[in-house]
Design brief:
Layout (H helix, E strand, L loop, with lengths): L2 E7 L2 E8 L3 E6 L10 H9 L2 E6 L16 H11 L5 E6 L1 H12 L4 E7 L13 H15 L3 H14 L11 H15 L23 E6 L4 H13 L3 E6 L6 H4 L1 H16 L7 H5 L5
Parallel strand pairs: 3-4, 3-5, 5-6, 6-7, 7-8
Antiparallel strand pairs: 1-2, 2-4
Helix pairs in contact: 4-5, 5-6
């Protein structure tokens, strides 16, 4: 069972949990979630012999922070230092992926490997969206302007859990209930207005040498799928996988597909098996 921990830093109290022993694996959640999105992966990896760590960033989950100047990158570095983790594999979803990339650029000696799921990328240009997605975003902005957080939460579940071009409610059951609870907590927290801007990674991401697994759901936003393809070409030491019938959060939506892929990559990075060859990756659908 995972052990909770707290880290106090610059007036903030970070909530997290860790479990297991072995190669450290640090999970970085999406912007519409918190550390609970990784529950399945945390349990399975700890049982497989990895030291797993997840925490809620400022503005998410159980972490509490005043509205002061901060950097998610500085927070991550400080939390790792306080937990005595020198180097790790970083598994990041969406905004968590962008943070993992930025960390790898600033701290290559501490980055054993990366797993980037529907990743964002700092410095990326504003995307062009399909008309169907624009209409949903119009409804989202209308709800935001009127302070209707319940509607905002449901619309964001459509965008990020179902997929912007998929039917509303495509994903139901426990995954949807957890999404609404996690994102509901984000929406209920006071806004943090003083995040420090990070150096853009878009022009230097290709210099990351750490082995990288790129994962994206085929039902995600078109620009995220395009970014996935671009990164697979720019990052020479990467393996790129597109998962069918999933959207932006495949680790939450279909852990039974995501977890074996993650474990195979981690075993390769840890030296438990041959580095994942192309044939193995192709079985899960290489981009």
């Amino acid at each position: 069972m995972a052990t909770p921990f707290e880290v106090r830093l610059d007036g903030a109290t970070f909530s997290g949990e860790s479990d297991g022993f072995g190669l450290p694996v640090v999970f970085l959640h999406a912007g519409v979630a918190d550390r609970r999105m990784w529950e399945s992966q945390m349990t399975e990896l700890a049982d497989a012999g990895f030291h797993v760590i997840a925490y809620d960033r400022r503005g998410h989950g159980d972490t509490e922070s005043p509205d002061v100047p901060f950097s998610h990158l500085d927070d991550l570095e400080a939390i790792l230092d306080q937990l005595s983790v020198h180097a790790a594999v970083f598994v990041g979803s969406s905004a968590g992926g962008a943070l993992a990339i930025d960390f790898a650029i600033e701290n290559p000696e501490r980055t054993v490997g990366l797993v980037l799921v529907g990743t964002a990328l700092s410095g990326s240009p504003e995307p062009e969206l399909p008309e169907e997605a624009e209409l949903i975003l119009d409804a989202l902005h209308y709800a935001e302007d009127r302070g209707n957080t319940g509607s905002v939460n449901k619309i964001e579940a459509h965008l990020w859990l179902d997929g912007p071009l998929s039917p509303n409610g495509r994903v139901d059951g426990p995954a949807r209930a957890l999404f609404l609870d996690m994102n509901g907590k984000v929406l209920a927290k006071p806004k943090l207005t003083q995040e420090e801007e990070r150096e853009p990674a878009v022009d230097v991401v290709g210099g990351i040498a750490a082995p990288t697994l790129l994962v994206v759901g085929e039902l995600d936003f078109p620009h995220i799928l395009e970014r996935h393809g671009d990164l697979s070409e720019e990052m020479e030491n990467s393996f790129a996988v597109v998962l069918e019938d999933t959207a932006h959060l495949p680790s939450l939506e279909k852990p039974e597909i995501f977890n074996p892929l993650l474990l195979e990559f981690l075993d390769a990075v840890a030296g438990h098996s041959d580095v994942g060859d192309d044939e193995d990756i192709d079985e899960d659908g290489e981009d």
